[in-house]
Amino acid sequence: MSDRPKAVALISGGLDSMLAARLVQEQGVHVEGLNFYTGFCVEGHTHAIRQKDQERPKRNNALWVAERLGVPLHIEEVIESYKEVLTNPRYGYGAKLNPCLDCKVFMVRKAREWLEAHGFDFIVTGEVIGQRPKSQTRDKLPVIERDTGAGDRLLRPLSAQLLEPTLPEREGWVDRERLHALNGRSRKPQMQLAQELGLETWAQPAGGCCFLTDAHYTARLSDLWQARGSKNYDIDDIMLLKVGRHLRPLAHLKLIIAREAGETHFLQGYRRRYPHLRTVSHGGPVALLDGTWSEADLDLAARLVARYSAGRNAERVDLELEDTEGGVRMLSVPPMAPEAVPAEWYIGA
Amino acid sequence: MPEELDCRYLLCPMPVIRTQARVAGLAAGDELEVVVTDPGALADVPSWCRVHGHEVVEIREGDHGVHRLRLRVGGG
Q: Which residues in chain B have their CB less than 8 angstroms from residue A59's CB?
């Protein structure tokens, strides 16, 4: 080991992992951050897509935290390898489709591999005993150490004084007395600690930073899996579940209808993957068609899209159906009345 | 002419991840031009550069939402 111990800190972009990294950093440890992109991270995408969100600050919270800490941040894209975690979680799901314990095991294991590849000494996480009902209970923490192979190289600075001393504490790389004994769901101790450490804090989204805890999003994901008859997905599916109105008027046909110009622009990027409808006689949204359909089904879909166009009160609305090869055919339909759209057609609304 | 990295139509953080991978294969002083359409990348790519000691030499916000960031790889 070099003179100065080296830690890799999991940086989610939230407050706890920032505090944990800082506590170790201020003891003279060289810290570098590691962040994983699963595709289900809340920040960024929908803000980038929707016009009404254009004024919001666009930033990657993990990078923002790394800048505050003054540490390098390595971002790993894990979309493909994360599929096994989401579709087949050994420890099951939380309240929604959030496989929190499996997710933590996955990320700490990745951190352990990174540590070994880069000659670092230990791993730091922002876990707090009792903070999360699924993954951060006292009995779950040893599971993470065991399943990841991280063992006693895994340090949780925020709750360390309530846990057995780890290797970095026993070796004197960090002083256990300067670590903490946080416990439970209250956020107040973290806010207080941030103030003591001179770190700026900010509003955290409820349910964390993951779409897999979001009721609307997971309803759409469940619907997707059910319609396909398997839990398969790719990155485009992940993105499209975040955008537009999703309606399933028929078991074999789903429509994704843009809600505004930014979403229309985004959905047009998928015109070579999905056939789509767009209104031509009136202003209106683009709608992707996912599934199969008969002529009658197509008429229904067109009437539904017309309902969301500026011609919703017109007698008829003209639309184009464009297939994935660019072939176009015209349709003319009476718009569906809003009250004629059954609530159960809306997925995750 | 610097090497070009096409990150158009990728949403953040993918432009950062692609930049990170490409920069790993470059030497100190090399330049890279990253082309993006997600406006979030105009904040995230420079942020990533700052924490890794790389320099953003120029940002050109183009018409039609296509932007270019020219980076110079640091020595770190």
A: 40, 43-44, 47
Contact call for residues A85 and A99 (beta carbons, < 8 A): yes
CA dist A214 and A206 (Å) reads 9
CA distance B61 to A185: 44
Distance CA A331, CA A299 (A): 8
Q: Is A133 on the interface with B (CB under 8 A)?
A: no
**Catalytic machinery residues of B:** 12
- Which of 3.30.110.40, 3.30.450.40, 3.40.47.10, 3.40.50.300 is the CATH number of B3-72? 3.30.110.40
pLDDT of amino acid B65: 85
B51 closest CB neighbour out of A49, A63, A239 = A63
Please give the DSSP secondary-structure letter assigned to residue A346: B
Q: Where are the domains of chain B?
A: 3-72
List B residues 46-65 in contact with A (Cβ-Cβ < 8 A). Answer: 47-48, 50-52
Each domain of chain A, given as residue ranges in start order, spans: 6-210, 243-345
The whole-number pLDDT of residue A206 equals 47
Q: What is the pLDDT of residue A182?
A: 96
Was domain A6-210 assigned CATH 3.40.50.620? yes
* A68 inside 8 A of chain B by CB: no
Q: What percent of chain B has pLDDT over 90?
A: 79
- How many helices and strands, by DSSP H and E, does chain B display? 2, 4
Tens digit of pLDDT for each residue in B24-58?
A: 999 999 999 999 998 889 999 999 999 999 999 99
Tell me if chain A has a CB within 8 Å of the CB of B4: no
pLDDT tens across A141-186, in order? 999 999 999 999 999 999 999 999 999 999 999 999 999 999 998 8
